[in-house]
Design a protein that fits this description.
Blueprint (H helix, E strand, L loop, with lengths): L6 H8 L15 H20 L4 H25 L8 H12 L6 H12 L16 H6 L1 H6 L4 H10 L1 H16 L8 H22 L1 H26 L11 H4 L2 E3 L2 H6 L6 H6 L8 H11 L6 E3 H10 L4 E2 L3 E4 L4 E4 L13 E2 L6 H5 L3 H4 L7
Parallel strand pairs: 1-2
Antiparallel strand pairs: 3-4, 4-5, 5-6
InterPro entries: FA_desaturase_dom, Fatty_acid_desaturase
Keywords: Membrane, Oxidoreductase, Transmembrane, Transmembrane helix
Pfam families: FA_desaturase
């Protein structure tokens, strides 16, 4: 049986082992951002000013897409205050970094910093969490989706990664705009509208064909890269009553050169322990976690994590399980029996039909898991 602990509990035990510089901003990360910005500008100019073979445009689009994603990773770090601390400069640089993904700094800090990090894996409060079976029974579109075969759902879900970040960002804008102080709402609106005004203006300047390669295709690529990480962050982990990053978060592993290009975005458990620390020091945090709580820590290659996502449903059942309600197949989660090398399921007994499950109380269906 594993007792859950808050991220502050872990941080308090690791902090004394870390160098003081690990808790200071690292403005040197901006050099990487500048490099990506120059690459993006060069790509736009090349596509806009020259008539080239479409395959050359395609190659440039791939570079632009990977640059858009990397700028988003740096923007994530900037808006956590780990690069610069002055609020106006933090928001300005964060706005530039998130410009390709059209996400404003005020919205991101409200949605990600102040809500997702505080309420990680809590169904009613985490804007990035996946639903329980009870919520499925109350949402017509979800109920319809989960009547489709698992393989088809997985295919559509993975295809949707190419647009999911942009769609979710727009959803978060509509969800949170009214929660901002009225005097701040105009700036939130401007931060949401201005990037799209810029990108639509670029459409009229370049024309549809070149705009597709300069922005639309790179946006699809950037969404896929960003969501390739985000989709593995928590979706194989259980719902937890206590915000315990070692229980509800997953670190994925990628080649070292990818970590360099992506500002160590793969270190997600470490990020939830120290969101105010530059990701430059997350490898050191990881060493301490694995030496102190090796049995609690979850990590796997990103490829295996994505395969596990393909093979499992995204509806929670009794907090620490995942269920495919169409077939009554129940899968375990990380820390509760999920073996990614041999993903299996248990089938519900006939008496536990979907109708019977849906009628159970919220406390029974959506309950959080305190311990295994």
């Amino acid at each position: 049986m594993k007792e859950l602990h808050s991220f502050a509990w872990y941080a308090a035990r690791i902090s004394p082992k870390l160098p003081k510089k690990a808790f200071k901003p690292v403005p040197g990360r901006l050099w990487g951002g500048l490099a990506y910005l120059l690459i993006v500008i060069a790509g736009f100019l090349t596509i806009g000013l020259f008539s080239l073979n479409p395959f050359i445009y395609l190659a440039i689009a791939i570079v632009l897409g990977t640059s858009f994603a990397a700028m988003g990773f740096l923007g994530h770090e900037i808006l956590h205050g780990t690069v610069v601390r002055k609020p106006w400069l933090r928001d300005l640089l964060g706005a530039i970094a998130f410009w390709p993904l059209s996400t404003g700094p005020r919205l991101w800090r409200k949605w990600h910093n102040l809500t997702h990090h505080v309420h990680t894996q809590k169904e009613d409060h985490d804007p990035d969490s996946w639903p329980t079976l009870e919520r499925l029974s109350k949402t017509k579109i979800l109920s319809w989706i989960y009547r489709l075969p698992q393989g088809f759902r997985a295919f559509v879900s993975f295809c949707s990664l190419t647009v999911m970040f942009s769609l979710h960002s727009a959803k978060m804008f509509t969800a949170y705009i009214k929660e901002f102080n009225p005097k701040h709402q105009p700036s939130v609106w401007m931060q949401f509208i201005l990037p799209w005004v810029f990108w639509i203006s670029l459409l009229f300047i370049m024309g549809p064909f070149k705009w597709f390669f300069a922005f639309l295709l790179p946006l699809f690529i950037a969404n896929a890269i960003v969501m390739g990480y985000i989709s593995t962050n928590h979706r194989l982990n259980p719902i937890t009553e206590v915000n315990d990053p070692l229980a509800n978060s997953l670190t994925v592993t990628v080649p070292k050169w990818v970590d360099v290009l992506h500002f160590n975005f793969s270190y997600h458990t470490e990020h939830h322990l120290f969101p105010g620390m530059s990701s430059k020091y997350y490898p050191l945090v990881k060493e301490h976690i694995k030496s102190m709580w090796p049995e609690r820590y979850h990590e796997m290659p990103i490829g295996k994590a994505l395969v596990a996502l393909w093979k499992t449903p995204r509806i929670y059942y009794e907090g620490n399980k995942l269920i495919d309600p169409r077939q009554g197949h129940v899968y375990e989660t990380l820390g509760h029996g999920l073996d990614i090398s041999n993903i299996t399921f248990n089938k519900l007994d006939k008496e536990d039909t979907l109708v019977r499950i849906i009628k159970k109380s919220k406390a029974k269906i959506g309950k959080v898991v305190k311990e295994e």
